[in-house]
Amino acid sequence: MIGAWLAEMGGPLLSGPPSYLRSTETETEMNQHVAAELADPIRIQPAGPDDVVRLVDLKRRFGATAALDGVSLTVRKGEILGIIGRSGAGKSTLIRCLNGLERPDSGQVLIEGREISRLGERDLQPLRRRIGMVFQHFNLLSAKTVEDNVALPLKIEGLPRAERLARAAELLQLVGLSEKAKAYPASLSGGQKQRVGIARALAARPALLLSDEATSALDPETTRSILALLKDINARLGLTILLITHEMEVIRSIADRVAVIDAGRIVEEGAVWQVFANPKSEITRSLLGGIRPQLPPEIASRLLPGEGAETILRIDVAGEAARRPLLSELSARVPGPFRLVHGGIDHVQQQPVGTLFVAIPGSDALHLAAVIAFLKDRGARTEVLGHVAGSV
Which helix (H) or strand (E) holds 41? Predict the structure, then answer.
């Protein structure tokens, strides 16, 4: 079918080279998702007022490799859920199960309350129209104008041209590209192409928007603008968004909740600010390494076990604990000197989250215990990182 479209429309895909299609979707699969053929409409009833997606014990193996190993997850109506993991963690397999391009070996995939993993192609087609997809490499038709690219899903659905173009105009205004309606993709920047891709994904008024590494091919400034657009669309339309990424900065910028996937399993899940404040798993701490304050290498390299001239203490605070004048209170309540050597307070989802590194002179175990007990009582988490022989 993709080949038939291209013959009809007079040109190849501008973006989405064969290597991308091989690694993410075959032509047949992309055709199944983007151009679901007309079928008798079915009534889709949500499982509950807050559930758009529910995954139950999802498993998928490729030979000896477990791509998904018991994934259970819920995406609530109107929220932005970010799924993050390293390459090979299972993100791509998960998103392909969500849009019906991959069938799990076992488990359930429920979209608006309907289990889709065992549906035949005819029943999957109208369900796919409830899911919009934003691709990493845009996948725009080079021989068609911007407005025709946006209207493509509606053309496949069989809507009249006037209705298609009216919807395209509405969406181009939403994404800030009204003046580009008659332009061709070759004249657009990367950010503009992705805006067109987002508008196309919204054309059929989906209940769920899947964003598959939508900003990973963009520069930082353009990434911020695209994330702001997705956030605005979520707020204006109440659209549920599931965002796949390997960048914690993307999660921090846009997501309400985050799920961390590693080796096919969800190893951590929660509100973004809570996961940032208190990561439970090693993979989450690693992914946060570039965002959370870290002890400067020149100090970290000097850390020794046992005793030293100064003890280096890591203090993690969030929420109310981060709003308190913690160090002033420590100075007043626990006699003895200390120095702030590094750290800071950030805000995630309007919640203060911070990490401080403090040097406490001497090797007085009782004094150190009193400091830690005081901080714990104030809601802070502490960790003795080690000792240094001289002053830092």
Answer: none
